[in-house]
Design a protein that fits this description.
By secondary structure, this protein is of the alpha+beta class. It contains nine helices and ten strands. The protein folds into two domains: about 80 residues, Phosphorylase Kinase, domain 1, CATH 3.30.200; about 190 residues, Transferase(Phosphotransferase) domain 1 (Transferase(Phosphotransferase), domain 1). The chain binds adenosine-5'-diphosphate (ADP) and magnesium ion (MG).
């Protein structure tokens, strides 16, 4: 059983989720009575200055300044030095992850439903890519770098929220840190290359593939964790994108082509922006009618 943190102003009720870097609790803001999600950096990461800095100076600040209806709002940030803990308090998002929705509820999302949801995600990532926050030195946008179905939440009314800005980075000088989720990482992200909007575009392509077919384009046997990352990386680097039709025959070649372009091995062959990607999808939707 986990010990729940004791925080002034918040009643911490239970653990919602435990990821690689953080634990997230459900709680109540005792001042407003509103439900909140409280993200606690895991203790073993508190000793890593760069992770701590990223949590305080990037993830938290981005949530504060990147105001978008599809990004949860920051409520508070607590740096409890005496307990050697930091907590990011944010708006609680009701619902479940897109990953849960695909794999546990629906199997795959029919394109009439998947494409409007995906356009909403593209709009949110496009917003991050265009973001300017001068005092944070963000002059040319932000990369999310961990786009995946597990980091998209779906609310009961069918809207989406993009969460987990934990490894988001300033656009520009960034090269890969090795963080991220192997199945969604394009060649340049897993091999220390130069990152750009095209890096998020690849992950978005993986997610669209997943929504439309109910499976990831590049997978490997998880029972051998040592081999797992390398095998996925090799597949992404060298194997062609599988045909979506083999998993779900009704899908059209045009839609296959749209997804393949996002999944191009060479960044220059991908969509160069979320707007480009969205425009292709919108044209496709118009022509299908
Ligand atoms: N604002 C929120 N409202 C509700 N649940 C959340 C919220 N933020 C995170 N979660 C839950 O906690 C999990 C982990 O949060 P996340 O920010 O993705 O951390 P990690 O970096 O550990 O992946 C998410 O997958 C989601 O289930
Ligand atoms: Mg996450």
């Amino acid at each position: 059983m986990n010990d729940l943190p004791h925080l002034d102003n918040y009643h911490v009720d239970h653990l919602i989720a435990e990821g690689g870097t953080a634990k997230v609790y459900w709680g109540i803001d005792l001042r407003s009575g509103f439900p909140v999600a409280i993200k606690e950096l895991k203790l073993r990461h508190m000793s890593n200055a760069s992770i701590r800095d990223k949590f305080r100076n990037m993830e938290t600040q981005l949530m504060l300044y990147a105001q978008h209806p599809n990004i949860p709002k920051l409520v508070d940030f607590l740096d409890l030095k005496s307990q050697n803990q930091m907590y990011l308090v944010m708006e609680f998002i009701q619902g479940r992850s897109l990953e849960h929705y695909i794999y546990r509820e629906i199997g795959l999302i029919p394109e009439q439903k998947a494409l409007p949801i995906f356009l909403e995600i593209l709009d949110t990532v496009g917003f991050l890519h265009r973001l300017r926050i001068r005092h944070m030195g963000i002059t040319d946008g932000v990369l999310h770098l961990d786009i995946k179905s597990n980091n998209v939440m779906m609310t009961p009314d069918g809207r989406i929220k993009l969460i987990d800005l934990g490894i988001a980075s300033r656009m520009g000088a960034d090269t890969s840190t090795g963080f991220g989720t192997p199945s969604y990482m394009p060649p340049e992200q897993s091999s220390g290359g130069r990152l750009g909007k095209y890096t998020d575009i690849f992950a978005l392509g993986v997610m669209l593939f997943e929504m439309l077919t109910g499976r990831l384009p590049f997978t490997s046997d998880k029972s051998n964790p040592r081999e797992y990352r390398t095998e996925i990386r090799n597949k992404i680097q060298y194997e062609p994108t599988p045909l979506m039709k083999q998993f779900y025959p009704p899908l059209s070649e045009n839609l296959q082509y749209i997804v393949e372009r996002a999944l191009a091995k060479n960044p220059a062959d991908r969509y160069q922006s979320c707007e480009d990607f969205a425009n292709c999808i919108k044209t496709y939707m118009r022509e299908r009618k």
